[in-house]
Here is the input.
Amino acid sequence: MARRRQIYEGKAKILFEGPEPGTLVQYFKDDATAFNNKKKGTITGKGVLNNRISESLMTRLNEIGIPTHFMRRLNMREQLVREVEIIPVEVVIRNVAAGSLATRFAIEEGQALPRSIVEYYYKKDELNDPMVSEEHITAFGWATVQELDEIMSLSLRVNDFLTGLFVGIGIRLIDFKLEFGRLWDGDHMDIVLADEISPDNCRLWDLRTNEKMDKDRFRRDLGKVEEAYQEVARRLGIRIEGGPADVKGPQVIQ
Here is the structure.
């Protein structure tokens, strides 16, 4: 088993130093959390499925010119990614009323929005990731006006592409969360898509039945969480070799 230095551990992933400068190894866990870490559990095989789903979607986005940190999948639970400076802002793109949006504005869940709505949240667990405006983001120096323009443009392109992709496999993209980072090459910097795209950070409903196929099944105790993730992978044409078996992460160097 490889021995690597751990850089960061989040709720769903661990980052280890990569084999080359400027790279990281992203390890996907089975841990599941909801409501800003107030609800915790385990979804068997989730890390394997999210690794494969995110690989598939990030690869397709790279192919259409969306810059991402994804380089390649290493094994069942790990990806090699470029090391980026994460911008502490989560971008949520909403196409259909659901979740907190439906609650905040007393809109019936499932109602299509007049147009896609983009929201920003400050990435800070201890503050429960509060919603923020562009004024907050630029005033506090989390991102510049030019960076926000690029983030908005990329987010809408991702939304357009993923919406069509999912419709083609019978899935409705309700909303989803994106994270971005700064990729430095000397003095040159590019904004790139980071983190992951999976049923952990997307709301995905069956186009015909509106059955939920994402982490809401865990949040709302709907059951069959693993089966929902597996169905998303199946529709994307992903075959999990030998099933979503466990692969242990590398030993951590203290």
About this structure: The radius of gyration is 18 Å.
